[in-house]
């Protein structure tokens, strides 16, 4: 594998002026075992493991981190800031993305809760602030006005959305444009087993709006590692919700096996892993339009995944993966 530890490429987050490594660290797992919205989803993750994960990400060249209010009601944000401090990272050395949780809330909550986010991040600035879901009681325009006010008061640097449809993305883009701001990103699910943004208008609209896509679940929560194809009994260890939501079942293992076999064959040629090939495809196929945040529950996951930053597939390999996975364009 061609390795370049000095510098990896930097991709722009829309027209925000922020550039990042094409792979960032997702920290939903840091909420594991904790109460509150979404903390129940992952098993308990000890503080020490989270600290080791953050250190591994930094050591591997990753320069940005994705967290959210709803990941354990701020636990992920707190654990991220504590871990960055222990690694000696100063404010501004890395890029931080966090998200406002809109369910059963209006746009006024954006202003009312921002200081909680900043307290949880304990001295680290919010470079990019996202509306996590299109579920607010307020209009998109009112939410974007509230987000703009945060930029104007210096509480956040730029604004984006997550899980927004093409129509809602356009509304957000127009509302921000009226106030002189770009829509930096739409953070949505995208991976080789779910390519629906290529056909449902999300990718096209993001490009029209000059926004970057941040792909979440780039490994389909582990399905794209090949580990479950190698030994399907490993699926029994996963929580029921994860098995149901992500289709960890025998049928899907068989349906996806041709893709995993292709990735494995290509990985062997590069002395790489299946995960690295899946991630390298994802960050290169759309030529700068997509970056990704990948999560892990062990430092070894991050060490493995970050090597994808240095893995270059040939155009033939990229096309072959595209072809074998194109059935997953429709979801
Ligand atoms: N905006 C949104 O609505 C939204 C939604 C979902 C996620 N996100 C963000 O996106 C990030 C990534 O998504 P995700 O965590 O759902 O999915 P993911 O990154 O595709 O998968 C993460 C899981 O895959 C397994 N894994 C990762 N790397 C591995 C490796 N090299 N070898 C073996 N197993 C590996 C681990 O499972 P085990 O822990 O079981 O070993 C890990 O917890 C999240 O952390 C979060 O920041 C955002």
Strand content: 5-15%
Q: Please give the CATH class.
A: Alpha Beta
Which small-molecule ligands are present, each listed once?
NADP nicotinamide-adenine-dinucleotide phosphate
Number of strands: 10
CATH superfamily: NADP-dependent oxidoreductase domain
Structural class: alpha/beta
> How many structural domains does the protein architecture include?
1
Tell the overall outline.
globular
**The CATH architecture:** Alpha-Beta Barrel
The ordered string of helix (H) and strand (E) elements is EEEHEHEHEHEHEHEHHHHEHH
Strand order of the largest sheet: 3-4-5-6-7-8-9-10
Largest sheet geometry: 8 strands, parallel, barrel
Overall mean confidence score, pLDDT: 95
Instruction: Pick out the low-confidence regions.
Output: 1-6
Give structural notes.
With 331 residues, this protein is an alpha/beta fold. It has one domain (11-222, 274-313): TIM Barrel (Alpha-Beta Barrel). Helix content is 41%, strand content 14%. The chain is built from twelve helices and ten strands. The strands form two sheets. Strands 3-4-5-6-7-8-9-10 form an eight-stranded parallel barrel, surrounded by five helices. Strands 1-2 form a two-stranded antiparallel sheet. It starts with 10 loop residues before the first strand and ends in a 6-residue tail after the last helix. It binds NADP nicotinamide-adenine-dinucleotide phosphate. NADP nicotinamide-adenine-dinucleotide phosphate is lined by residues 26-29, 66, 132, 162-163, 187, 216-222, 225, 227, 275, 293-297, 301, 304-305.
């Amino acid at each position: 594998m061609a390795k370049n530890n000095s510098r990896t490429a930097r991709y722009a987050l829309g027209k925000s002026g922020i550039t990042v490594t094409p792979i960032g660290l997702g920290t939903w797992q840091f909420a594991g075992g904790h109460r509150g919205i979404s903390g129940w989803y992952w098993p308990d993750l000890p503080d020490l493991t989270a600290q080791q994960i953050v250190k591994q990400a930094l050591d591997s060249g990753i320069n940005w981190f994705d967290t959210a209010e709803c990941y354990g009601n701020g636990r992920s944000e707190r654990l991220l800031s504590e871990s960055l401090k222990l690694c000696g990272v100063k404010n501004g050395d890395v890029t931080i993305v966090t998200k406002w949780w809109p369910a059963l809330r209006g746009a006024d909550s954006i202003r009312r809760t921002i200081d909680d986010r900043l307290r949880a991040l304990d001295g680290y600035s919010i470079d990019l602030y996202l509306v996590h879901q299109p579920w607010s009681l307020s209009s998109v325009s009112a939410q974007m006005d509230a987000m703009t006010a945060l930029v104007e008061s210096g509480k956040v640097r730029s604004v984006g959305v997550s899980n927004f449809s093409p129509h809602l993305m356009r509304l957000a883009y127009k509302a921000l444009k009226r106030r002189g701001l770009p829509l930096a990103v739409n953070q949505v699910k995208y991976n080789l087993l779910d390519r629906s943004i290529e056909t449902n208008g999300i990718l096209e609209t993001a490009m029209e709006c000059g926004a970057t896509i941040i792909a979440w679940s780039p490994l389909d929560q582990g399905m794209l590692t090949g580990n479950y194809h190698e030994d399907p009994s490993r699926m029994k260890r996963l929580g029921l919700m994860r098995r149901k939501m992500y289709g960890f079942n025998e049928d899907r293992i068989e349906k996806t096996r041709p893709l995993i076999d292709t990735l494995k064959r290509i990985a062997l040629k590069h002395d790489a892993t299946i995960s690295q090939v899946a991630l390298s495809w994802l960050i290169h196929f759309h030529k700068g339009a997509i970056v990704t945040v990948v999560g892990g529950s062990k430092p070894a996951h991050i060490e493995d995944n970050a090597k994808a930053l240095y893995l270059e597939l040939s155009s033939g390999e990229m096309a072959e993966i595209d072809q074998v996975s194109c059935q997953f364009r429709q979801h």
